[in-house]
């Protein structure tokens, strides 16, 4: 049986991987050949251009000497004759003077072509060959690393198939022993029982080894695919850029200098020179690189991805997180995460040094100043000084060149390591999170009740919602799933409490524009920061409650919209097409952390609802933008406030008008949603928002250890009338969406029972 499995393994997967890796190896060899061919082409181009300039200089000098002889010949004839004031004679003298001037200009052009313009080309040829050699060496190292990854993939694949074959064999022996046991039940042979027990233990051990081997195989496959993708999409392109550093600028500068000389000498050839200048101005390193890659598509195209090839009969195609391996995988995940962070920081530092060295290197290569070289020829005293400074500059340039290519190699090696670690990190993260979700659903059942008051001071002792950085505080404090729920709950619940009251005053004229009582605003702020719900105890003026909401966003240490995206959002706001503008806004906002997106989505849905009653409350979208713009969006610098304020108001106005198209839906970012309907009691609101999937069935998918949730009875919050005070007899006009199905689920520990006590904590029964 074992030999049959091995035969099947060799027949199915090995050939595929060998052929695929052989094709990749051929591609890598072709790439090196193309790089060598490209170096030969650039070398030939530089040599041809140098020969052309030298020969052109000789022709110009010969032409200048001929013009000088021509002018001297007719000048000598003119000197023999008596001078005359006739206009024809004056014209003739001017013509001879012009001929001498033209001779001098052609002579200068010839000397420039021979002595000045050819020197930068010689230097360019030298460093182009050095750059190409160093780039090829780095490319060879990267290819070796890539082939090493594919070799590791093959090794992991063979190990996995070997263990799986052993597992199938051991399982067959176990079944055979079980059949013998059934035949010999009456004899009750203890020897047979020991044999079965021994084979069961062996099957379990081999199964564990097989699972570990499969995990290594999957991880190596992910790393190999990620490495190949990065090499073909980024690294090879980057190395071609490195090999071409300074090549295009040097050629451009030489030809540009030639054009400048030619313009002064040949005005009659202006149209041709302009055409040549246009060609020079269109020198584009990126375009040449794209053409090179397109011309050699087979060598540089992305190879096919490595696909998972399981042994016949194995249905598992993902990372296994079983009881025996869960701790090991979690430890491995943390180690990869730590290593990934360290390597990323190191690579970022190397990248910064590389970019600085690149700028310095290009600047040094471009310092072959043709004008200074021309002046040094005229002044012999300054010529020695210029040669000394040039030699020193070249020595410094050599050091920068070595530093640059060292950092290029370090950056590419580091980024490749990041790519492999990130692939393993993402795969392990998905497996661990999936296992954690299964564990949450299997834990003991409990009924959860969230109180009407805000989170307990014992849970959130240092959080001041009106003066803290919401996102930084959540990241710093959420060390467990329970903590995340508690901290996120207090932020969203505070907003819901305030907005639920304000949503019942949509008809109130001047809402958010008319300031409320500053004393009452401060009292409400202090009550909220103590963890209380002051809006449930007494009635407040609508303008006062609106002032609390504005104060909440104004007091944030960092604005709701990150300052590093402010200029990007302001630029996108200038797009004329509404659909395109909304799509661009959504792309930027979707990159924000989910807690920020949820708060934005809830707030702007409410503001849009307010603007729909503008005929009564006089608050059009622009008026609301004027009230909320300075509180939500700020520039990177404080001095930008006055200059950016009109643009910020225009931005917030567009966000309010197009909020449905801009902010991600609940299916994209699960969380509370503002809807134009009666609101729920806060207990029921959180139960429905965070446990909606279980409310439909009454428990988790695991019936034996399911978590039962009590939805509670909905109860409307008080609503204010148009005069600005609350009235408990009227229902609210806005609320939270019940359709939200977040993946957040609180795992149960001991058994809890719901109670209507006024304590802000969850009490144990």
From TrEMBL:
GO terms for biological process: signal transduction. Residues 167-198 form a coiled coil. Keywords: Coiled coil. Residues 22-288 form the F-BAR domain. Transmembrane segments: none annotated. It comes from the Eukaryota. Residues 702-765 are annotated as: Disordered. Residues 479-663 form the Rho-GAP domain. Residues 719-729 have a biased composition (Polar residues). Pfam families: FCH, RhoGAP. PANTHER family: SLIT-ROBO RHO GTPASE ACTIVATING PROTEIN. This is Rho GTPase activating protein 4a. It comes from Oryzias melastigma.
């Amino acid at each position: 049986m074992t030999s049959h499995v091995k035969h099947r393994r060799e027949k199915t997967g090995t050939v595929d991987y060998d052929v695929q890796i052989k094709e990749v190896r051929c591609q890598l060899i072709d790439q090196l050949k193309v790089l060598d061919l490209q170096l030969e082409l650039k070398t030939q181009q530089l040599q041809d251009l140098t020969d052309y300039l030298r020969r052109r200089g000789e022709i110009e000098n010969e032409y200048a000497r001929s013009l000088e002889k021509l002018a001297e010949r007719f000048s000598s004839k003119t000197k023999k004759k008596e001078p005359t004031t006739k206009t024809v004679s004056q014209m003739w003298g001017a013509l001879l003077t012009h001929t001498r001037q033209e001779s001098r200009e052609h002579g200068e052009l010839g000397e420039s072509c021979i002595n000045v313009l050819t020197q930068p080309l010689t230097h360019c040829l030298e460093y182009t060959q050095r750059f190409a050699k160093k780039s090829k060496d780095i490319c060879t190292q990267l290819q070796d690393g890539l082939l090493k990854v594919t070799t590791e993939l093959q090794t992991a694949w063979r190990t996995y198939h070997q263990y799986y074959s052993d597992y199938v064999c051991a399982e067959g022996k176990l079944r055979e022993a079980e059949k013998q046991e059934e035949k010999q039940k009456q004899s009750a042979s203890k020897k047979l029982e020991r044999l079965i027990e021994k084979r069961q233990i062996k099957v379990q051990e081999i199964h564990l080894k097989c699972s570990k081997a499969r995990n290594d195989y999957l991880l190596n496959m992910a790393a190999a695919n990620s490495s190949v993708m990065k090499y073909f999409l980024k690294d090879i392109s980057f190395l071609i850029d490195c090999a071409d550093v300074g090549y295009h600028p040097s050629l451009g500068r030489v030809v540009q200098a030639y054009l400048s000389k030619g313009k002064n000498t040949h005005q009659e050839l202006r149209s041709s020179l302009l055409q040549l200048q246009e060609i020079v101005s269109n020198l584009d390193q990126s375009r040449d690189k794209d053409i090179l890659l397109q011309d050699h598509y087979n060598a540089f195209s992305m190879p096919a991805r490595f696909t998972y090839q399981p042994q016949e009969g194995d249905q598992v195609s993902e990372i296994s997180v079983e009881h025996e391996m869960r701790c090991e995988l979690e430890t491995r995940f943390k180690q990869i995460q730590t290593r990934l962070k360290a390597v990323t920081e190191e690579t970022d530092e190397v990248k910064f040094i590389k970019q600085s060295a690149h700028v310095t290197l290009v600047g040094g290569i471009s310092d072959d100043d043709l004008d200074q070289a021309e002046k040094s020829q005229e002044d012999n005293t300054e010529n020695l000084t210029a040669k000394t400074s040039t030699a020193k500059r070249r020595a410094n340039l050599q050091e920068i060149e070595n530093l640059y290519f060292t950092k290029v190699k370090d950056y590419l090696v580091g980024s490749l390591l990041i790519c492999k670690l990130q692939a393993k990190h993402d795969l392990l993260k998905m497996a661990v999170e999936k296992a954690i979700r299964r564990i949450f659903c299997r834990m003991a059942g409990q009924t959860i009740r969230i109180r009407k008051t805000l989170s307990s001071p014992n849970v959130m002792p240092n959080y001041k919602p009106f003066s803290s950085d919401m996102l930084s505080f959540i990241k710093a404090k959420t060390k467990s799933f329970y903590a995340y729920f508690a901290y996120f709950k207090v932020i969203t619940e505070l907003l819901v409490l305030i907005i639920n009251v304000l949503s019942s005053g949509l008809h109130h004229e001047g809402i958010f524009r008319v300031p409320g009582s500053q004393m009452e605003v401060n009292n409400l702020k202090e009550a909220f920061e103590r963890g209380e719900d002051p809006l449930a105890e007494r009635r407040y003026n609508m303008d006062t409650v609106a002032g609390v909401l504005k104060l909440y966003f104004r007091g944030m240490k960092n604005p709701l919209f990150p300052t590093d995206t402010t200029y990007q959002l302001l630029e996108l706001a200038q797009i004329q097409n509404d659909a395109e503008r909304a799509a661009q806004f959504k792309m930027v906002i979707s990159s924000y952390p989910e807690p920020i997106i949820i708060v934005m989505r809830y707030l702007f849905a409410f503001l849009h609802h307010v603007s729909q009653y503008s005929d009564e409350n006089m608050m059009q979208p622009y008026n609301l933008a004027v009230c909320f713009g300075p509180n939500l969006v700020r520039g990177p610098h404080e001095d930008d406030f006055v200059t950016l304020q009109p643009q910020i108001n225009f931005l917030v106005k567009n966000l309010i008008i197009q909020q449905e198209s801009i902010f991600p839906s609940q299916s994209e970012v699960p969380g509370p949603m503002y809807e134009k309907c009666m609101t729920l009691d806060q207990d029921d609101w959180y139960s429905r928002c965070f446990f909606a999937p279980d409310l439909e069935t009454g428990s988790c998918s695991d019936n034996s250890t399911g978590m039962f949730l009590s939805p509670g009875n909905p109860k409307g919050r008080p609503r204010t009338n148009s005069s600005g005070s609350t009235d408990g007899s009227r229902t609210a006009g806005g609320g939270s969406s019940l359709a939200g199905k977040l993946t957040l689920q609180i795992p149960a520990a001991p058994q809890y029972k719901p109670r209507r006590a006024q304590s802000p904590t969850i009490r144990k029964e």
